[in-house]
Every structure is written in structure tokens, then in C-alpha cells.
Design a protein that fits this description.
A 5-stranded mixed β-sheet has the order 3-4-5-6-7. It has a 5-stranded mixed β-sheet with strand order 10-9-8-11-12, sandwiched between helices. It folds into 7 domains: 86 residues; 121 residues, no CATH class; 112 residues, Endonuclease III, domain 1 (Orthogonal Bundle), CATH 1.10.340.70; 209 residues, Nucleotidyltransferase, domain 5 (2-Layer Sandwich), CATH 3.30.420.10; 81 residues, SH3 type barrels; 242 residues, Roll (HIV Type 1 Reverse Transcriptase, Chain A, domain 1); 190 residues, Nucleotidyltransferase, domain 5 (2-Layer Sandwich), CATH 3.30.420. It is extended, with a radius of gyration of 47 Å. It is built from 34 helices and 38 strands. Helix 9 packs across helix 10, helix 20 packs parallel to helix 25 and helix 31 runs parallel beside helix 33. The protein is of the alpha+beta class. Helix content is 39%, strand content 17%. One of its GO terms (molecular function) is endonuclease activity. InterPro entries: DNA/RNA_pol_sf, Integrase_cat-core, Integrase_H2C2, Retrovirus_Pol_polyprotein, Rev_trsase/Diguanyl_cyclase, RNaseH-like_sf, RNaseH_sf, RT_dom. It comes from Littorina saxatilis. This is Reverse transcriptase.
Length: 1188
């Protein structure tokens, strides 16, 4: 305090001024200390919050780690159990198979013996004269058989009319016949014996003769034991009644490998190669180039012709051991053959771009090799179909609508089949979860036909009420005609997920996982009693708070905490039982409803935060992939877990876009809807490479392939889409869906890549035909790389082209706010000789007037609006500019030309002609309506016109269907106009100005909102006086300047709000004057109370300060009416003043000529003058006196 007194005395202040100075300095010191203390408190709170969040995240990480470890251990145990079970089943199956084989073997032998007996009897009847010889043969075989062990293998010499030689035989324990000869090579038929056949002299039967009649494929498949085989050693082939494993393996034909058909098999000899090289125009420059070394990176390159063949000789220290590598230059007709051998062939291996390119360059080369190989590999049919699913990025996560009413929407699913079934026969569980409260229900079922599921749902609905919407998958129980009829009778809207996309129904899927995991733990000792644990499990789930809402389902459902095990345990330990307050029924219901509403609102906010957080982490690796009707796509259905068998199916054609990320695909005879995560763009390979005279570049979209980016049909530079468009936070779910459907109909209009309109062309009319130009400005070396990158991007987008124009404007590199560089062209010399375009420009006041009564807004920003307008052909050379890398000229309208804004304004006026509820300011469009239905209709008409004009809008800068929007530096909401928070923050955080330039900058920024600040001119007079000519550049900061500076900041920090002018209502103008300035306030009544529309003030000049009181008051009226003449001309309005003599302006006669001139001017306005008390004229009075 003493310091302030001393400082005031030093400044020469006395008396009241000294006291005011000390008080003001004391207040400022107290305010600074309070702000410092507030900042310290906030910093402590933020630190504590960060510590709490870190602890929570650490606990969550530990919990997730523990869960993963539990799952791994459980999976290991289950795997061991399954392995043991499989091994036991295999051993049991082997035992059963052996038993069956033995039985079949014995049965088949008996059957064949019987058949052989019948055939032998027939032979004996035909050859009765040979009976003695047969009896001798039988006796001999019985004698030999008796010497072999029973049921054992052995080798013996046999001598029969049917077969003679050494055989391997099997002896049966209970033989039916002495000898059985099977289907062996050289054996005679039963009806054709040869009794003269002796060992050493017999001739076997012809090989082409049929084997024994009882040999057939069924026997060969049933009898597969080596013990039943016999063969002759002196025969080249042995055929038995049984096909052995070795023989089956030997006779099995090898399946030929499928090799991709390749054109590389075409014969190309040396002469043909030379002929094609000479005819290829792309190789001519290399043949005509003199043989000399050229540096390429760290290596050297030269071209040579050896034996009429053109080679490229490349030498590098790390290639080919440092030795020269001679590569054949491949002509165009043979390039595809080389790529097919290197990539598609069986020895190619379908490797990636880099490895295929390296393989080719080991022996061949041609210009553009890497680009050709890249296109070839990316269009490979096999590679596209076998790419792992994880290599195709997912699309960004879409936000689910937030449901704020319990059981408005519920998610339903089925779990099962559960093994083992319950003791009562339950095999499935029907689950249901509410979207608003996360309240779950679960019902065990014995069967899952539609009738059973419908009855279970009705049983649940009897407790919780009938929901408006249900969300299910495409299970037959949910989409059957019976279930649809149930939904119709109960007036339920049925929503379904797309195939193989359970993420859409993630709420119930997550609950299913929790239910199965918990149920497994509870019924571990009694697995068949699992159905009796469900109710206890549901109580446990409903009692604990949900991570997403922050409340337990019980709290959101009933508005109170239920009495559970923890409360009971606490009561038993402490004997402390809460006694609730006794309330009447009305009070109880009222407070319960209020508490439920507050709880649901907090839960909704927590859900929004959780949703935003989840989307942020999910979208880190997501890519906004879009398909258009007519695109060819591949589909990956998770129907097989074998990595060798799982592959993409297709290609199929996209028929329509049915949602943000859902597409209708023609899969043959019918069409199905699939999510974008199951689709991948199919790149078709052209049938053959041909030489062309020109090429057409088509825009392409990016996709993942082989660790690189894959070109798709679309736009190469597009980075934003409909997913980046913001929607109003207070829209209902149905309104959000309608907006999503609307954006789906105009997907191509939402792009950060500028279009090209035909509405208007930018024309440059000059007053002189003499070309003008300037030398290029020096560009810093560190900025040249970014400049070159920007120029390359503009070339690719078709905004500029290389030029040889005599005109030349220099380029300037300016630093942007984010630290990056911006390329600007200095067209000042061209602008000096350009004929001015008188196209009228819109004013902010006129635009705000048209917004009166609007409640719903949509802000739309054109994507680089200037670049969407082409430059007239003959004027393109006039836009040329010079860079260190060359001269370019603009094909699209550039920034910086004097008439660029007028051309854009003319194009917008043509496009929006006759359209209501749309205003524009340069390339910003604002749609404003009173109702949502009217708003949606206006949006569709606007985007239809944008489509016709081929204009695109920037998705990230668009917001649709909101009641609060920032437009032209102001905040608009429900008929009110406020300050833009961003600019207010700049003013509040601006340091105290110390020089003239800094004062002008501060006044310029604050002056943009002078209509919000009463008596702005008078308040800032001490600051504006310091900028006069003759004042020192260094500001002498005193109490008056400090007071003005702090007053402006204080008034802006109060968030002043103005009403939008309504021309249908009567205006009220209040004016007042003081010794320092005059002020005016334009008002209108809303709800019977006057609200300000705009403020205006003016600092009095030296002569005006000498006016009398009446003259000052009259000057305030005249100046105020002139200031707001746009609103007051031609309408009736009320003039309110606290200077009563002025009420007689229209009737009194004044001797003062100045006042008489003012009265004559006021005769042009239809106004009613009213006198009000000075205490009521607080606004205008403050405007004029605040700085006194």
C-alpha cells in the first residue's frame, strides 16, 4: 500500500486522484494474487486428477494382465484335456477297427470258400475221368498242409492243375478246404484246369485273362492284411485277393500340380529379341546414347550393345560382389512374360514387390521397371485372394447413438449350444441388455425355435416393459416370419447386424463373454447345475458399476443402491442400519424421478466420453476405405480357421451403398449386405500390355497390400470423408440416422480434394498488354523442400502446370500457426494493371439479419473454394509464378489476385439463386431453418446443386444439425449472437501493449466486437490517443491507459450476448451523451422485455465537446440513427431518451441552426420519441459515461 502511495505522489497525483490511483492499484494487486492462487489451485487439482487417472489405468492394466494370464492357463488346461481325450478316442477307434476287420476277414473267407466249393463241384462233374488224379493231388496237399503250423505264414512249392510254383501261404486253424488259390498272376480259371501242368514245364495263364470270378473291388477294400497275400517269385506281377498298403501306394497315381498359365512359354530366340529391342521406341534413347558411365546413387550405370543386344551395365559395391552386372533391356512385348516368370510361376513364389523387382533386376531391366512390377504384383489374382485379413486395415469406428431412456433399445443374442446340458435339459441361454442402463437379463432355454424365443422375450418384457427397438444378429430365430409378426403386434422396430460383424452388437456380445466366464467359475464343481446359477450371476453383474456409465445397472434402473452382500456384511459387523427418511408418496416419486434424470444424464455424458476414448484408440490404425457402386471387391468370410484354406472370395460387384460402412454386394444369384471390414477392393489386371501414345491418370484410393499402399479406384489425395463430418450433439437417434442416410446419398461431395466447377471461370482483364514480372524472391534452403513438395502436390491435383509464360510473379513462403510453411504468390504487379470487378460483397450485418428465427444450423465449408474454379484458357499465362525449380502457371483460380473473391462470390450467387434458408460468406455456407424436416430438405437441395456444380465440401470443417454454430467470427445460438470464444481468449491472454503497433493490433482485435461493448470508442479513447501522430513509439502507460485496457478485457470476459435483429418486430433506439462521447443502443422486445441488438459509441471531437447539453443529446440521436439506418429506414421505431426537451423535436421550433438541420434530417424517419428516466437508460448512459 505504501508503495502505491509513493508511486502516486511521484506521478504528481493529489487528493481524490491519488486515492483512486492507490485503490485501483490495490485492486489490481488483489486480482493478480487471486488469479495466481486460482491457477495454483487448478494446477493442484489437475495434478491430483492425473495421479488418479494414472492409478486407475495402472489398476486396469494389472487387471487385464491377470485376466490374460488366467485365460492362458485355462486355455492350456483345456488343450491338455482335449489332447488326452483325442488320444483316448483314437486308441478306442483303433481297437474297434481291428476287431471289425478280423470279423469281416473271417466272414469273407467263409463266403468265398462256399463259392469255391460250388465251382469245384461243377468242375468235378465235367471231368469225372480225371477223378483218380484229383484224389492223388488232394492227398498230396493234405500231407504237405499237415506239416505247416496252424494259422501261420509259410513258403511252399505247390503243384496243381490251376497253379504251379513257390508261394507264400497262410494256414488256417480250422481249414474248410485243403488249398485255396487266390487271384494271383498266372493262375488258371476254375473251369479250365490243366492236369498235365508240372513244375518247370507249365505255362501260366495269359496275363490278359480275367482273374478268378470272385475277385472284386469290395473284397480288396475289406481285406487289407498282408498275411492273406500269395505271389509267385518267377512272375513279374503279383495280383492277390487283397490289395496291400504298399501295393496301393505303388499303384496310386500322383496328382499333377496346377501351374498358372503363363505367356512366358512363347518361344523367343535371340534374333526375335534383337528385332523387338530395335523396334521398341522406349529403348531408342539408350541405344543412341554414347557409352559412358553415369552416376546413380553410389553406383555407376552405362549402356552398351554387345552382339546386337542392348545391355545395361550396373556396378555397385554391394551388388554382385562389386562386379559389373549386365542386364538385358527388355522390350515392351516381353516385359509381361518376364514379370510372370518372376512372380506368377511355380518358382516365383508370388513374392512382394521388392523381392520380385530385385529378382528381375538380377538379369533384366527396362525404364519404369519398379512401377510396372508394382502394378503387376498388386493386380495378381492369387495374391489378392490370399492376403491375410490383418493386412487389410479396418475402417474407422462409427459412434453408436446414445440412448437416454431405459429400455428404449435393447440388444438380444443367444449363447449355446452349451455342453454339458443342464440337469433340466437347458442347452442355450437367451440374453438381453438395455442400451441406456446396461441392465441385463438372461433366460435358459431347452430349445431355440422361434416360438420358444418369442415366449422368453415376452416373459422378459412383462418385467421391464416393451422396448421400442431390438437389435439382433441374423439368426433364423430372430428374422423368421413368426418373430416379425410378434414385433409387428408389439410395435417393435427390429434392427439387425450385417453378416459376420458381431461388433455392431458389441454390448450384448461383451455381456455374453462375461456371463460364460463367470458361469464357468460358479459351476465348476456341478457343471450340470449351471442353469441354477444364472440369477445369482445376474445380481452380481447388476450390482457393480459399469466402466462406461460410472453407475451400476441397479442404480440406473431403480434410482437407488440395492441391498447386497456388502451391505449385509456391513450391517452384521457394525450393527448400523440406515433409517430412511419418511416421505409422502408424491415427494418420494418426485425426488426419485429427479434423481433418475440426473443419474441418466451423468451416465450419458460418461458414455459419450467412453465412446470417444474407444473410438480414438480404435481409429489409430484405421483407414477410411470407401467403395462405390460398380467396384469389384473380394469378401473374406470367417468360415474356416485353417490358414491354408481361408482366402478371399470373389471378385463380386458392389451394387449400392446402404450405410456409412455397409454395402450391398452381388454374390451371384442374390445380393447380400456386408460391412466394409469384410471387403477389399479387387484390382483387375489388364489383359496385356500394349504401347500407347498417351495415358490417362485416374484418381485412386489407398489400401494395404504387401506392407505398401495399394491403389484403388477413388482419389489418390483424398484423406477425409463423411466420417469426419460432425453432427449436432443434441440430435435424436432418428435425426442422426436421417443425416447419415443423407450423407450416404452425397458421399462424393464430402472430400478434402477440390472439385472443378463449370459455373464460372476466373477472368483476368488487364489495362496493358505488356507482360509484367518480378525476379523470384530468395527462398531459404530449409524451406525449399516443403516448397517443392507443395508444388508437386499441386501438379498432381491439376491446380498448376509448367509454364513458359512471359508473366512472372514471385513466390513467398510464410510460416503458418502450426509451424509448417504456406506457399503464397505475390500478384501485386499483375493486380495493379487488372480491371477491377465491381461484384458486390456480402456484409455481416445483412447475413445476421437473415438468420432471425432460425433454430437449427449446418455450417458447410468448400474444400479450397478458390481451387474449384478454373481459370479461363487465355488468362492462364497471366497467373505464372517463378520458383527455384522452374516456372508454373495456375489452371485453377489462385489466391491473391484482386478479383478472385469477386469471381467466387459470383459463382456462389449463381449456384444459390432462388434458394432460401442458405447464406454464404465467401466459401462458407450456412443452412438455417426452424424445423429439422425443413433443414433436411434444404440440405438435400443444396447438395443437389453442389453435385450439379461439381463442388466438394471439406468434411472436417462441416457440422450438421446443430443449434450452436460459429459463423463469421461470432457464436450463434437460438436467435442470439455472442462472441467467439477463441478470439476472446486471444484478447484476454494478450500481453499489455508497449508500442504503437501493439496498441493498434489490440484495438483492431477488440474492435471487431465493438458492437458487443457499450461505448467502445469512449472506453478505448486513452489507448487510441496514444497512437496519434507525434506521440512516442514507446507507450507511456498510465492509470487512464490501464483502466481502459482492463475495462475492455473485463467487458469481453463477461460473455456479452446480442439478439439477432428481427425486421418483423419494432426497433427501440436509446441514445445518450456525456462530456466525452455519445452512445446508442438498438433494442427489440422479446417476451415483453427489451434485449440489445447492437451497441455503438463515438468519442467526441474537440469542437463537439463545446456543444451545449441539448446539442450533444441531439447529436447522439442523429448519429445513432445514421449508425443503424439499415434497420430503421422505412419502418416505425421508438426513440427513447432521458433528455425530456428532445421529446418535442418534431413540434418545437429551434433557433439553433445546427439543431434545425438535424431536425430536418430526422423528418425522413418514422419514429416515436419517448422520454425515460435516467435510471432506466442504463445502456446508452453507460456508453457515453463509462470513461469519464
Amino acid at each position: 500500500m505504501a508503495e502505491f502511495w509513493g508511486k502516486g505522489i511521484e506521478l504528481g497525483l493529489k487528493g481524490k486522484q491519488l486515492t483512486e490511483f492507490v485503490e485501483s492499484q490495490t485492486r489490481l494487486l488483489a486480482q493478480r494474487e487471486e488469479r495466481q492462487a486460482q491457477r495454483e489451485r487448478e494446477e493442484k487439482e489437475r495434478q491430483a486428477q492425473r495421479e488418479r487417472e494414472e492409478k486407475e489405468r495402472q489398476a486396469q492394466r494389472e487387471e487385464r494382465q491377470a485376466q490374460r494370464e488366467d485365460k492362458e492357463r485355462q486355455a492350456q488346461r483345456e488343450e491338455k484335456e482335449r489332447q488326452a481325450h483325442r488320444e483316448e478316442r483314437e486308441r478306442e477307434a483303433q481297437r474297434e477297427e481291428r476287431q471289425i476287420e478280423l470279423k469281416r476277414f473271417e466272414l469273407q473267407i467263409k463266403m468265398e470258400m462256399k463259392r469255391l466249393e460250388l465251382q469245384t463241384e461243377m468242375v468235378c462233374v465235367q471231368n469225372q475221368h480225371e477223378a483218380p488224379r484229383q484224389r492223388d493231388y488232394q492227398q498230396q496237399m493234405l500231407h504237405r498242409a499237415s506239416k505247416l503250423p496252424a494259422f501261420s505264414d509259410g513258403k511252399d512249392q505247390i503243384d496243381t492243375p490251376y497253379f504251379t510254383g513257390e508261394v507264400e501261404a497262410v494256414c488256417l486253424k480250422e481249414p474248410l478246404y485243403d488249398l485255396l488259390i487266390g487271384n494271383i498272376g498266372g493262375a488258371r480259371r476254375p473251369d479250365d484246369p490243366d492236369f498235365e501242368w508240372r513244375m518247370g514245364s507249365a505255362q501260366p495263364a495269359a496275363e490278359e485273362e480275367d482273374p478268378l470270378p470272385f475277385a472284386n473291388e469290395d473284397i480288396n477294400e475289406l481285406l487289407r492284411d498282408d498275411r492273406a497275400t500269395v505271389h509267385r517269385r518267377d512272375q513279374p506281377q503279383v495280383v492277390s485277393a487283397v490289395t496291400t498298403r504298399a501295393q496301393a501306394k505303388k499303384d496310386k497315381t500322383t496328382t499333377p500340380l496346377r501351374v498358372t498359365n503363363s505367356s512366358a512359354t512363347a518361344v523367343v530366340d535371340r534374333d526375335r529379341l534383337i528385332q523387338l529391342q530395335e523396334a521398341d521406341l522406349t529403348l531408342t534413347k539408350y541405344r543412341s546414347r554414347p557409352v559412358k558411365e553415369m552416376t546413380k546413387g553410389e553406383g555407376t550405370v552405362q549402356f552398351e550393345v554387345k552382339a546386337k543386344i542392348l545391355y545395361r551395365v550396373f556396378q555397385h559395391a554391394r551388388v554382385n560382389g562389386g562386379k559389373p552386372l549386365r542386364q538385358v533391356l527388355v522390350p515392351q512385348p516381353l516385359r509381361r512374360q518376364v514379370m510372370e516368370v518372376a512372380h506368377d510361376s511355380i518358382m516365383g513364389g508370388h513374392l512382394g514387390v521388392k523381392k520380385t523387382s530385385d529378382r528381375i533386376q538380377a538379369a533384366f531391366y527396362w525404364p519404369g521397371l519398379h512401377a510396372d512390377v508394382t502394378r503387376f504384383c498388386r493386380s495378381c489374382n492369387i495374391c489378392q485372394k490370399t492376403i491375410p485379413r490383418g493386412r487389410v486395415p479396418k475402417v474407422p469406428l462409427q459412434k453408436m447413438p446414445l440412448i437416454d431412456r431405459p429400455f428404449k433399445r435393447v440388444a438380444i443374442d443367444l449363447i449355446g449350444e452349451i455342453k454339458p446340458p443342464s440337469e433340466a435339459g437347458h442347452r442355450w441361454v437367451l440374453t438381453l441388455v438395455d442400451y441406456a442402463t446396461r441392465y441385463p437379463e438372461a433366460v435358459p432355454l431347452k430349445k431355440i425355435d422361434t416360438e420358444t424365443v418369442a415366449e422368453a422375450l415376452v416373459d422378459i418384457f412383462s418385467r421391464i416393459g416393451v422396448p421400442e427397438e431390438i437389435l439382433t444378429d441374423l439368426g433364423t430365430q430372430f428374422v423368421s416370419e413368426c418373430m416379425e409378426e410378434v414385433n409387428r403386434l408389439l410395435s417393435i422396430r427390429h434392427l439387425t447386424t450385417t453378416p459376420y460383424h458381431p461388433m455392431c452388437n458389441g454390448l450384448v456380445e461383451k455381456f455374453n463373454a462375461t456371463l460364460k466366464s463367470t458361469l464357468k467359475k460358479l459351476c465348476s464343481e456341478q457343471p450340470r447345475q449351471w442353469h441354477r446359477y444364472i440369477n445369482a450371476l445376474l445380481f452380481a453383474y447388476r450390482e457393480v458399476p459399469q466402466e462406461s456409465t460410472g453407475f451400476s445397472p441397479f442404480e440406473l434402473m431403480y434410482g437407488r443402491t440395492v441391498r447386497g452382500p456388502m451391505q449385509i456384511l456391513k450391517e452384521l459387523w457394525t450393527k448400523d442400519v440406515d433409517t430412511p427418511e419418511v416421505k409422502n408418496s408424491y415427494q418420494y416419486v418426485f425426488e426419485l424421478r429427479e434423481k433418475l434424470e440426473e443419474t441418466l444424464e451423468i451416465a450419458r455424458e460418461n458414455l459419450r466420453k467412453s465412446q470417444d476414448s474407444g473410438k480414438h484408440y480404435y481409429d489409430r490404425k484405421a483407414v477410411n476405405r470407401k467403395f462405390t457402386p460398380g467396384n469389384k471387391v473380394l469378401i473374406l468370410l470367417p468360415t474356416d480357421h485353417n490358414k491354408l484354406l481361408m482366402q478371399w472370395k470373389g471378385p463380386y460387384e458392389v451394387e449400392a451403398v446402404v450405410g456409412i460402412n455397409d454395402y450391398k454386394v452381388n454374390v451371384g444369384k442374390k445380393s447380400k449386405i456386408y460391412h466394409a471390414n469384410l471387403l477389399k477392393l479387387y484390382v483387375e489386371r489388364p489383359p496385356e500390355a500394349v504401347q500407347v501414345a498417351a495415358s490417362v491418370e485416374e484418381p485412386a484410393e489407398l489400401d494395404e497390400f504387401d506392407g505398401e499402399e495399394l491403389l484403388e479406384l477413388g482419389d489418390l489425395h483424398k484423406k477425409e470423408g463423411v466420417d469426419d463430418v460432425k453432427l449436432g450433439p443434441d440430435l435424436t437417434e432418428d435425426q442422426q440416422k436421417e443425416l447419415h442416410d443423407f450423407m450416404g446419398d452425397f458421399t462424393h461431395r464430402f472430400s478434402d480434394v477440390p472439385g472443378s466447377t463449370s459455373l464460372v471461370e476466373h477472368e483476368v482483364h488487364l489495362t496493358s498488354d505488356v507482360p509484367v514480372g518480378s525476379k523470384p524472391y530468395p527462398i531459404p534452403f530449409q524451406a525449399r523442400e516443403s516448397l517443392k513438395k507443395d508444388i508437386d502436390n499441386m501438379l498432381k491435383m491439376g491446380v498448376i502446370r509448367e509454364s513458359s509464360s512471359p508473366y512472372s510473379s514471385p513466390v513467398v513462403v510464410v510460416k503458418k500457426k502450426d509451424g509448417t510453411n504456406r506457399v503464397c504468390i505475390d500478384f501485386r504487379k499483375v493486380n495493379k494493371i487488372t480491371v477491377f470487378d465491381p461484384e458486390p460483397m456480402p456484409t455481416a450485418a445483412d447475413l445476421f439479419r437473415r438468420l432471425t428465427g432460425s433454430k437449427i444450423f449446418s455450417k458447410i465449408d468448400l474444400s479450397k473454394g478458390y481451387w474449384q474454379i478454373p481459370v479461363r484458357g487465355e488468362d492462364i499465362p497471366k497467373t505464372a509464378f517463378a520458383t527455384p525449380d522452374g516456372t508454373y502457371e495456375c489452371l485453377r483460380m489462385p489466391f491473391g489476385m484482386v478479383n478472385s473473391g469477386a469471381t467466387l462470390k459470383r459463382g456462389m450467387r449463381k449456384m444459390l439463386k432462388g434458394m432460401k434458408n442458405v447464406v454464404y460468406y465467401w466459401d462458407d455456407l450456412l443452412v438455417h431453418t426452424e424445423t429439422f424436416a425443413e433443414h433436411l430438405e434444404t440440405l438435400r437441395e443444396l447438395f443437389s446443386r453442389l453435385t450439379k456444380a461439381n463442388l466438394t465440401v471439406r468434411p472436417s470443417k462441416c457440422i450438421l444439425g446443430t443449434d450452436n454454430v460459429d459463423f463469421i467470427g461470432h457464436s450463434l445460438k437460438e436467435g442470439q449472437k455472442g462472441l467467439l470464444l477463441e478470439n476472446v481468449t486471444k484478447i484476454l491472454n494478450a500481453p499489455r501493449p508497449e508500442t504503437k503497433k501493439q496498441v493498434r493490433s489490440f484495438l483492431g482485435l477488440a474492435g471487431y466486437y465493438r458492437e458487443f461493448i457499450p461505448n467502445f470508442a469512449a472506453i478505448t479513447a486513452p489507448l487510441s490517443d496514444m497512437t496519434r501522430k507525434g506521440c512516442p513509439n514507446r507507450i507511456l502507460w498510465g492509470p487512464a491507459q490501464e483502466k481502459a485496457y482492463q475495462t475492455v478485457r473485463d467487458l469481453m470476459s463477461r460473455d456479452p450476448v446480442l439478439r439477432l435483429p428481427d425486421t418483423a418486430k419494432e426497433f427501440i433506439l436509446r441514445t445518450d451523451a456525456s462530456d466525452e462521447g455519445i452512445g446508442a443502443m438498438l433494442m427489440q422486445e422479446h417476451g415483453g422485455k427489451p434485449f440489445p441488438v447492437s451497441y455503438a459509441s463515438k468519442k467526441l471531437s474537440g469542437a463537439e465537446k463545446n456543444y451545449s447539453t441539448m446539442e450533444k443529446e441531439c447529436l447522439a440521436i442523429v448519429w445513432g440513427i445514421k449508425k443503424f439506418e439499415l434497420y430503421l429506414q422505412g419502418v416505425k421505431f421508438v426513440l427513447q431518451t432521458d433528455h425530456k426537451p428532445l421529446t418535442y423535436l418534431n413540434s418545437a421550433k429551434f433557433v439553433n441552426n445546427r439543431i434545425m438541420r438535424w431536425v430536418m434530417y430526422l423528418q425522413n424517419f418514422d419514429m416515436r420519441v419517448e422520454s425515460i428516466k435516467g435510471s432506466d437508460n442504463v445502456g446508452a448512459d453507460f456508453l457515453s459515461r463509462v470513461c469519464e
